[in-house]
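Job type: complex structure
Entries:
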Amino acid sequence: MEHFYGAKKRYLYLLPAVPVIIFFFAFFVYPLFEMLKVSLWKSLPYGEYEKVLTLENYVRFLTDPFYLKVLWRSFLLGVAVTAVTIPLGFILAYALWTSTGLKRKILYFCILFPLFTNLVIRLYGWRIIFSPTGPINIILQNWGIIDEPLKMIFTFPAIVVGLFSECTPYYVLILFSVLTLINRRYVDAAIDLGAGPLRTFFRVIWPLSLPGVVSGGVLTFIWSFGSFATPTILGKPVHWTAAVHAERQILSVRDWPFGTAIGFMLLLFVVIVLFVQGRLVPKVRTQRTEV
Amino acid sequence: MGNREPLRKSRSDIQRINWNSLLFNISVWIVLILLLAPIVLVVFSSFSGKTHLSWPFTDLTFRWYGEVLRRPLWVKAFFNSLIIAVLTTAMSLAIATPAAFALSQRKHKESGFIRSFISWPLMVPPVMVGIALLMFLSRAGLRGSYLAIAIGHTLWAAPLVFITMNAVFERFNPVYVSAASDLGANGFQTFVRVTLPIVRSGMISAVFLGFVISTQEFIIALFLYAPKTITLPVEIYTAIRYEISPGISAISVYMIGIVAAGLIVIDRVIGIENIGFGGKG
């Protein structure tokens, strides 16, 4: 009994965390669980379904070359956006880290302003920029560089640019919060010991900032892989990600079992990526202590 | 590069390797342009006198700003977004703040697990959250209500509020509170004169985060809205799939203006550097 009360006391400090846990269980975990159940039901034509447990929907997704291609393209999109965001975002986070005073304030504003501006509005801005009568095409035509308007809107690169501008502010802030933890004396030491700028960067700053690069990069990948708005606004149906197809199945086709199954395939991918990250990060940490 | 210099203040050394070279500065400018260009273009286009948007925007006019205000659909959507944002902010703060306080006090295994549990909704694609809530809340008869959309937005805002508040409480040293009471302050005085000033900047940025996240979000709202609770982002999203017009730009500029004003106020009150994910520098 004594032991029991002791244990109770030990967990008592968690009491204020109970509301958020209940809220998340009620409106997040439980609905997802219900959704998992629906994805295992038998899908019938015209939005009907039969409540028999079956793996049919998943088999259909994994054996249909069309949907495998969709999954593959979502994956490629995630890789492309992450590959662009990691180096370019690093440059901005680095500029923020080394800046002071007014320059830092201005950089901060330039990062937070797009972050807090509505995503739909920013995508609308990209639509104007990329459109055949938009500034890039008209200016290039006036300069005589091109005769016909370039096809930029509704292409894969347009989606990558859109997602890049969507993920970069988050990536920069995460990376910056890690950079501020770096003891500047390590950098001094490297320089005093005669390392040049490049060597100091690759041997000291880069390894120490890896945890930020990894967690920011993984978030970027997950968000672009599961993105919905950008591919529908800046892309054609051929560019639609698995997330868009899930939404189409639910809101247009009304095939609930199949739509939810697509959703869970998406989630499975995310879980695999997070698992790999979990494997990767401890290694990064040991590297940190070595330095 | 190899010349050794005596130890100097760290700040200057770190700036020496900020290759003040052209290449680095150009790269920073390119990234900033990519981040800001779409917003700038939306603002420019809202002054276009032509109904069909094409560069260069000529016949500059303010008329769209008045015109959109006379369209009840847009005004309705605008106020719906505000109502839902207030609800979301209130709910996120109410559930995330106590948890952030509790988990900042001790670091056990289970508190680490709860910490990561609270960030799960950020990892699940919003389309999934939208579908799951649509099924669940339809059965509860809440589909299309303000509350339903606010619940969805809270799943997104509460983790961010939690991260912000947790960083605040971790920096909070309880010694100050006991010092105040040792010096004869009562509980109320301690709270107003000691605790509140320390956590104030974090609370303000948490409120701002919760509010802005909600006015931005539209994927969950797309699944849960009814015609009378349609939010502005959903309205804009459905409109721009078919057309780009200066009217849409004008309503967008109203929202951009609110964000800019909010950021400037925040900067005046707590300093813009204090918004972020617990990063300080």
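Summary: The radius of gyration of chain B is 23 Å. Confidence is low (pLDDT under 50) at residues 1-12 of chain B.
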